[in-house]
Amino acid sequence: MATEEQLRLSTIIKSCHDSLRMLTKQYGPEKAWQEHIKDGDRLREYAEAMHQLANIWEHNTTNQDLMARSRVKWTIEYCMAYFFSERIYLEKRLREQRLLESWEGYDCSQCQYLEQMPDKIKVLDVGSCFNPFGKSENFEVTAIDLCPATEDVLKGDFLKIQIENLLEPIMASETNEVISLPANYYECVVFSLLLEYIPSSDLRLQCCQKAYQLLKYEGILIIITPDSQHVGKNAAIMKNWRYTLGTMGFSRIRFEKLPHITCMVFRKASDPRIAQRWSELHKESYMELSIDIPQDNKTFDDD
Ligand SMILES: C[S@@+](CC[C@H](N)C(=O)[O-])C[C@H]1O[C@@H](n2cnc3c(N)ncnc32)[C@H](O)[C@@H]1O
């Protein structure tokens, strides 16, 4: 059962999300976002509360319910299996090669692969807040957030950040904010509880398109989304995410529903046509290019 302190922290987080949703209804997502990011006090209060709450969730080793929420553990374990212990990326590569060769008029001549596996995986953690992956010895993490809770997180609005051919991130000298990130550079991009913060489907789509540009071929986008419902409740929404991300060149390679979160892994296919063709073949009549979330249809009385 939640303690009084947990309830206090959750209320701060919820009121920040409610305020942004209310602004979005009033002004539309773009203007609402500009207003929202000006409110430094609210962003700082949120960052502090999120950090404290996550510490309670992540460091609890006695309560099974809290442990089940461990998105950090899940993400690290999947990355280790994908890149190192099980080398899942090679298995997926082979599968993609076989698929392409089985389609008439296609071959692997346009495929692009991870050249060499580095000792440490380059991870971009967007909306990192408190750099939960910073201590993982197998990761070299670039952690960014609108309002960092800890000093090892870079400040930056992912929606504004440019993507260029660079060797490392570029910071603005006066504000010490990230202004550009390198294209085709990261093996892994993490959106852990990020997309629900972003106020519209179009802006979430922009986030996913940016992740695609930032990743190397065969790199992975890990999306963790809060979901306390049973697995079927949001199935149509999740299938639509898969369809939409497929049109960008991402293949969904893992879907796991845990008690309070859904964890998904999207691979930047070695040839985007593989994922795009999947989407074409599996498109259902209700599907459209969008990244909707259940909260989009909530009224404020639902909470
Ligand atoms: C719910 S918290 C998740 C924190 C952490 N990733 C975790 O899983 O515990 C969402 C975070 O995303 C950040 N965020 C939201 N939109 C962002 C954007 N456009 N650019 C950078 N950070 C953003 C917020 O400031 C907030 O810290």
From TrEMBL:
SUPFAM superfamilies in alphabetical order: S-adenosyl-L-methionine-dependent methyltransferases
Top-level lineage group: Eukaryota
Keyword Kinase: no
Gene Ontology terms for molecular function: methyltransferase activity
EC annotation from Swiss-Prot or TrEMBL: 2.1.1.-
InterPro entries: Bmt2/SAMTOR (IPR021867), SAM-dependent_MTases_sf (IPR029063)
UniProt-listed Gene3D superfamilies: Vaccinia Virus protein VP39 (3.40.50.150)
Residue positions binding S-adenosyl-L-methionine: 127, 145
Keyword terms of this UniProt record: Methyltransferase, S-adenosyl-L-methionine, Transferase
One GO process term, biological-process aspect: negative regulation of TORC1 signaling
UniProt family annotation: Belongs to the BMT2 family.
HAMAP family: BMT2 (MF_03044)
PANTHER family named among the record's database cross-references: S-ADENOSYLMETHIONINE SENSOR UPSTREAM OF MTORC1, S-ADENOSYLMETHIONINE SENSOR UPSTREAM OF MTORC1-RELATED
Record function comment: S-adenosyl-L-methionine-binding protein that acts as an inhibitor of mTORC1 signaling. Acts as a sensor of S-adenosyl-L-methionine to signal methionine sufficiency to mTORC1. Probably also acts as a S-adenosyl-L-methionine-dependent methyltransferase.
Name of the protein described by the UniProt record: S-adenosylmethionine sensor upstream of mTORC1
Phylogenetic placement of the source organism: Eukaryota, Metazoa, Ecdysozoa, Arthropoda, Hexapoda
Encoding gene per record: 106084028
